[in-house]
C-alpha cells in the first residue's frame, strides 16, 4: 500500500473520475481499538480498494465501532469526521486522501473567467471553493519563518468568510504553556494567550500569516492556509539575546486591552533582582510594593488589599486554598520561589469564577516541568537551602517536579536585639511535587501536593507550630476548537497548635484545624470574535475544629475541652461573557450565584430581638443532628467591567464587583504569631458582603517603554465581624456574645509608573487610601467609638514604593527598594485612675492615634556567571542589605502595668541592617 501520492491533478487527467464504486460497494467491518491507519489497512484487505495518503496525517486515537453493510463512502466519512482530511476516488478503486483542500470532480461554469480575476486578495471572499491559493514566500525580517500549514477542512457548501483558529502556545524545550504571548496576523487580528497558553483568532479563508511576540521568546512567522475552523498549536524557543529586566510582567497590550481593573501579574523568574530580607526571593513581598496592597506591619502575616481585612483574600496554590501563606513570623513566604511560575492578583473586578472572599484573589500557578531532560535549580543562603528537580517521565508528554526548602535559622533569634529571644529556636520547611501528563491533543492531567511546617519557641515554656497540607488534581479537556473545559478537585488542611510546657499543674496543648474540599467545573466557549463565554459550577465543603485544649500530664489541672465542630457547604454557579461591542469598546459581564448551607451537628442559641446578646437575652438553644441544614444563605454576585480605547495606547476602564464571604477569622491582636481562629456563618453570624466600584486610566509612552496608570476605588462592606472591648475569643462557646457585626468603607487612589525597557527598569507606586469600620448599636455595650466610623488597624493613608534595577554590565546589576508608609493606628491611654491601690488606664477611642511612620531602604547586587551557551549549569550570586539605614521601625506600641505604674513599650522586628549572601544554581 502506498503512503504518498503523485500530483492529484495529473491523476485526475489520466484516470478520469468515477464515484460509482465508493458509493455503491458495501461491506461490514469491526473496529476494536484500531487506529485510523490500521482500520484503512483492514478495509484494503477486505475490499480490494487502495488508499493513498501520508501516514503523518492520521492520529493514533483508537476506534471502537461496528460498521454493518455500509458503503465505503459512509465509513470513510465517519472515520475522518474529526480530521481535516477529504477523500476522492480516482480510477478503479483508488481512493486519495487530501489534507484540508477539497478536490472537485468537475469545473464550475464560471471557472475560466474566475481565473483571470482571482488574486490572493480574493481569498477572504465566499467564493472559497473555486479559488487557487498562492503563497507568499517572502521572509519577514528578524522572525523565524516556518513551513506553511493547512488548517481545517474545506467544505464546498460553506458560506463563511471567517473561521476560528485556536490552540496552545508552549515552550519548545519544557512543553509548558506560555501565557501572555501576543498572537497576531497580517490581517490586523491579534489576541493574547491565557494562563494555560490558549489562544483563539477569527481568520479569513485562504492565506494568512500568524506572528508571535513575547519577552524572552523567539519571534515566529507561520504561514497558514485556512479552509475552516481548526487547531494550530505553536511551540516557541527561548530567545538567547540579552534581555532587559522586567520585574512585574503583564503583557503591555493586556494592560491597555483587558477589561479587568486592578489586576497585576508577578513572574517568578524575574523576582531575583529585588533585594529582600535574608536573601530569600519572595513574590508575595513584591506584591506589597504594588499600589493597593499592604500589610499591618513588618513581620506580619496576611495582606490588606484596598481596605480589606487579612481574612478577605483568597490565596490559591494550583486551585487549593492556602490559609497561611507565610513562614517564620511572616518574614518569609510559604511558596518555594523556584516552583512558582506566576501570581495573578485580582483586586478590582474579580472574575466570576472566583468567590468566597471580599477583597482579592492571589491565583498562584506552579511551573510546568521540563518534559525533555532532567533540569533543576538550587540555592544556599544565610538561613535557607533550596532544591528543585524536574524529571521527564514520558518524553515530551509527562514530567514530575519535586522541590524542598528548609531553614537553619535559630541563629537569627540570637542575633536580634532582644534578650527574651536568646536561646530560642525557630525552623520551617516545605515540600512540593507536581505531575503533569499530556494524554493526547485533547486531554491533559496534572496533580500537585504541598506540605509545609513551622515550629518556633519564642518563650521558654511555649512551642508554636502550624502546618499546611494541600492536594489538587485537574483534568483539562478540549471538546472542539471553540469549546474547552477543566475539572478541578482540591483539598486544603490547615492546623495550628500551642504546646505549653511550664509548670506541670498548668501544662496544656491547644490546637485548631480547618479543612476544605472543593470540586469545580469550568468551561470556556469562544463563540466568535465578539463573544467569549466562561461558565461553570463549584461546591466546597468546610470542616472546622475551632479549638481543643487538654492537659499534658496527670498533674495538669487543665481540663479537656473542645468547641463543637462546624460544617458548611458553599456552592456556586457562574457565567461570564467577554463582549467586543466595537473596535473601541469591550465589556466583561459576569454573574455568580452563591449558596451556603450550615450543616449539623450543631447547637445554636436563639436570642431575644432588640436586646444585646448575652446570657440574660438567651431564649433557647436549638440542637441539630448530623447532616441537618439548619441555616441557608444565598446571594447573587455581579461582576461587570468595561474598557474603552481613547487612543490605541490610551484606554479607560471601569468596573463594579459584588461579593460574599461565608467564613470569618477571629482575632483581637496584631502580634506576629498566627493564633487567629476561624468561624463559619450560622444563625447568629451573618455572611460578610461587599461592593466595589473602580475606574482608571492607562497609558503608554515612548514606544511602550513607559507605562502609567491611575486607578480609583470605593468599597462598602456589611456584616464585618469584629470584637467587643475586652472580648475573650479563644475557646469561647458563645462567641456571638463577644463579637459585633458592622459596616466598613474604604476608598483610595492608586498610581503606578513603570519603565519596562533599557538598562534601568522598575516602577514607582503610590497609594492614598483610607479604611474605616463602624460598630453601631442601640446598646452601649455593643458599639465601639460611640458608634462612629473609626480607622481600621491597617489604615495607612500614604504608601510609596520605589523599585529599580540597573544593569551595570550584562552580568552585574544593582537594585534598590524603598518603602514609606504612614504609621498604622493604635489605641493609646488617655487617663488613669486608681483601683485597689494600683494605677489603671483609661483608653482612647479605638485606633485614634498612630505609631511613627515606617520607611526602609534595601539594596542588592546580582552577579551572574558567564553566558556561554554550552555549560553544565548557570549560576549567580545575590548580595543584599535589608534595612540599610538601620531604621528602628516600630511594629506596635503597647502598655502594661508594672509595680503600680503604666509603662509603654515598643516592639520592632528588624532595627539594624541585615546583610545576606545567596548562591543560586540553575542546571
TrEMBL record:
Keyword Acetylation: no
Stretches assigned to the TonB-dependent receptor plug domain: 279-356
InterPro entries found in the cross-reference section: Beta-barrel_TonB_sf (IPR036942), CarboxyPept-like_regulatory (IPR008969), Plug_dom (IPR012910), Plug_dom_sf (IPR037066)
Principal subcellular localisation of the protein: membrane
Keyword rRNA-binding in record: no
Signal sequence bounds: 1-20
GO cellular component, one term: cell outer membrane
Organism domain of life: Bacteria
Keyword field: Cell outer membrane, Membrane, Receptor, Signal
Locations listed in the record: Cell outer membrane
Name assigned to this protein: TonB-dependent receptor
Taxon lineage: Bacteria, Pseudomonadati, Bacteroidota, Flavobacteriia, Flavobacteriales
Amino acid at each position: 500500500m502506498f503512503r504518498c501520492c503523485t500530483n492529484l491533478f495529473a491523476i485526475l487527467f489520466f484516470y478520469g473520475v468515477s464515484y460509482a464504486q465508493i458509493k455503491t460497494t458495501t461491506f461490514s467491518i469491526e473496529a476494536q481499538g484500531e487506529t485510523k491507519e490500521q482500520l484503512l489497512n483492514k478495509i484494503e484487505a477486505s475490499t480490494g480498494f487502495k488508499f493513498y495518503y501520508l501516514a503523518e496525517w492520521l492520529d493514533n486515537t483508537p476506534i471502537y465501532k461496528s460498521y454493518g453493510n455500509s458503503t465505503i463512502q459512509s465509513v470513510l466519512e465517519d472515520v475522518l469526521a474529526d480530521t481535516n482530511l477529504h477523500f476522492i476516488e480516482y480510477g478503479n478503486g483508488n481512493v486519495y486522501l487530501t489534507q484540508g483542500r477539497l478536490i472537485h470532480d468537475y469545473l464550475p461554469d464560471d471557472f475560466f473567467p474566475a481565473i483571470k480575476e482571482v488574486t490572493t486578495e480574493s481569498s477572504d471572499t465566499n467564493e472559497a471553493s473555486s479559488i487557487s491559493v498562492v503563497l507568499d514566500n517572502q521572509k519577514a525580517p528578524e522572525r523565524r519563518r516556518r513551513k506553511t500549514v493547512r488548517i481545517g477542512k474545506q467544505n464546498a457548501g460553506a458560506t463563511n468568510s471567517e473561521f476560528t483558529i485556536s490552540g496552545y502556545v508552549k515552550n519548545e524545550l519544557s512543553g509548558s504553556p506560555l501565557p501572555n504571548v501576543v498572537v497576531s496576523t497580517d490581517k490586523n487580528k491579534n489576541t493574547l494567550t491565557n494562563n494555560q497558553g490558549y489562544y483563539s483568532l477569527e481568520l479569513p479563508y485562504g492565506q494568512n500569516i500568524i506572528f508571535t511576540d513575547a519577552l524572552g521568546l523567539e519571534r515566529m512567522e507561520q504561514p497558514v492556509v485556512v479552509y475552516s475552523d481548526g487547531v494550530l498549536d505553536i511551540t516557541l524557543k527561548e530567545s538567547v539575546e540579552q534581555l532587559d529586566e522586567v520585574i512585574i510582567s503583564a503583557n503591555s497590550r493586556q494592560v491597555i486591552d483587558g477589561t479587568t481593573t486592578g489586576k497585576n501579574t508577578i513572574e517568578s523568574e524575574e523576582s531575583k533582582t529585588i533585594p529582600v530580607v535574608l536573601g530569600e526571593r519572595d513574590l508575595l513581598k513584591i506584591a506589597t510594593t504594588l499600589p493597593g496592597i499592604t500589610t499591618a506591619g513588618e513581620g506580619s502575616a496576611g495582606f490588606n488589599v484596598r481596605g480589606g481585612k487579612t481574612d478577605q483574600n483568597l490565596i490559591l496554590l494550583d486551585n487549593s486554598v492556602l490559609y497561611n501563606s507565610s513562614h517564620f513570623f511572616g518574614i518569609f513566604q510559604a511558596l518555594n520561589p523556584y516552583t512558582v511560575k506566576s501570581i495573578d492578583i485580582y483586586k478590582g473586578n474579580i472574575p466570576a469564577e472566583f468567590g468566597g472572599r471580599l477583597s482579592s484573589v492571589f491565583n498562584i500557578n506552579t511551573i510546568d516541568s521540563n518534559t525533555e531532560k532532567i533540569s533543576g535549580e538550587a540555592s544556599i543562603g544565610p538561613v535557607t537551602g533550596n532544591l528543585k528537580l524536574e524529571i521527564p517521565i514520558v518524553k515530551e508528554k509527562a514530567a514530575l517536579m519535586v522541590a524542598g526548602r528548609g531553614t537553619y535559622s535559630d541563629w537569627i533569634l540570637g542575633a536580634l536585639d532582644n534578650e527574651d529571644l536568646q536561646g530560642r529556636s525557630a525552623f520551617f520547611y516545605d515540600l512540593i511535587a507536581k505531575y503533569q501528563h499530556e494524554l493526547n491533543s485533547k486531554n491533559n492531567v496534572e496533580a500537585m501536593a504541598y506540605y509545609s511546617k513551622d515550629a518556633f519557641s519564642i518563650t521558654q515554656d511555649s512551642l508554636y507550630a502550624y502546618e499546611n497540607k494541600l492536594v489538587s488534581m485537574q483534568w483539562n479537556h478540549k471538546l472542539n476548537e471553540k469549546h474547552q473545559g477543566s475539572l478541578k478537585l482540591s483539598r486544603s488542611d490547615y492546623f495550628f497548635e500551642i504546646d505549653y510546657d511550664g509548670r506541670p499543674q498548668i501544662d496544656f496543648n491547644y490546637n485548631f484545624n480547618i479543612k476544605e474540599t472543593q470540586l469545580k467545573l469550568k468551561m470556556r466557549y469562544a463563540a466568535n470574535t465578539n463573544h467569549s463565554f466562561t461558565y461553570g459550577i463549584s461546591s466546597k465543603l468546610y470542616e472546622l475544629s475551632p479549638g481543643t485544649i487538654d492537659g499534658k500530664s496527670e498533674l495538669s489541672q487543665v481540663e479537656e475541652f473542645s468547641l463543637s465542630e462546624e460544617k458548611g457547604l458553599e456552592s456556586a454557579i457562574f457565567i461570564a461573557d467577554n463582549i467586543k461591542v466595537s473596535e473601541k469598546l469591550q465589556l466583561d459581564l459576569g454573574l455568580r450565584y452563591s449558596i451556603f448551607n450550615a450543616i449539623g451537628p450543631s447547637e445554636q442559641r436563639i436570642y431575644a430581638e432588640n436586646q444585646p446578646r448575652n446570657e440574660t437575652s438567651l431564649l433557647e438553644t436549638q440542637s441539630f443532628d448530623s447532616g441537618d441544614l439548619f441555616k441557608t444563605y444565598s446571594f447573587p454576585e455581579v461582576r461587570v467591567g468595561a474598557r474603552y480605547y481613547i487612543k490605541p495606547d490610551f484606554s479607560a476602564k471601569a468596573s463594579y464587583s459584588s461579593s460574599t464571604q461565608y467564613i470569618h477569622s477571629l482575632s483581637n491582636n496584631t502580634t506576629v504569631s498566627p493564633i487567629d481562629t476561624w468561624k463559619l456563618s450560622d444563625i447568629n453570624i451573618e455572611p460578610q458582603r461587599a461592593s466595589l466600584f473602580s475606574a482608571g486610566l492607562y497609558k503608554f509612552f515612548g514606544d511602550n517603554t513607559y507605562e502609567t496608570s491611575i486607578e480609583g476605588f470605593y468599597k462598602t462592606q456589611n456584616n464585618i465581624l469584629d470584637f467587643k472591648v475586652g472580648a475573650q475569643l479563644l475557646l469561647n462557646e458563645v462567641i456571638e456574645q463577644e463579637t459585633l457585626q458592622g459596616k466598613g468603607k474604604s476608598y483610595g487612589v492608586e498610581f503606578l509608573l513603570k519603565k519596562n525597557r533599557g538598562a534601568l527598569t522598575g516602577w514607582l507606586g503610590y497609594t492614598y487610601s483610607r479604611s474605616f469600620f463602624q460598630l453601631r448599636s442601640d446598646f452601649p455595650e455593643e458599639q465601639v467609638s460611640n458608634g462612629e466610623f473609626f480607622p481600621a488597624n491597617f489604615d495607612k493613608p500614604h504608601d510609596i514604593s520605589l523599585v529599580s534595577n540597573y544593569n551595570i554590565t550584562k552580568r552585574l546589576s544593582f537594585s534598590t527598594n524603598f518603602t514609606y508608609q504612614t504609621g498604622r493606628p493604635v489605641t493609646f491611654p488617655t487617663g488613669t485612675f486608681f483601683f485597689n491601690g494600683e494605677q489603671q488606664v483609661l483608653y482612647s477611642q479605638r485606633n485614634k492615634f498612630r505609631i511613627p511612620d515606617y520607611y526602609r531602604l534595601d539594596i542588592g547586587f546580582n552577579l551572574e556567571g558567564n553566558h556561554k551557551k554550552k555549560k553544565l549549569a548557570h549560576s549567580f550570586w545575590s548580595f543584599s542589605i535589608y534595612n540599610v539605614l538601620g531604621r528602628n521601625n516600630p511594629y506596635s506600641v503597647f502598655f502594661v502595668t508594672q509595680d503600680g505604674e503604666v509603662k509603654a513599650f515598643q516592639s520592632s522586628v528588624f532595627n539594624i541592617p541585615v546583610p545576606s549572601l545567596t548562591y543560586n544554581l540553575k542546571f
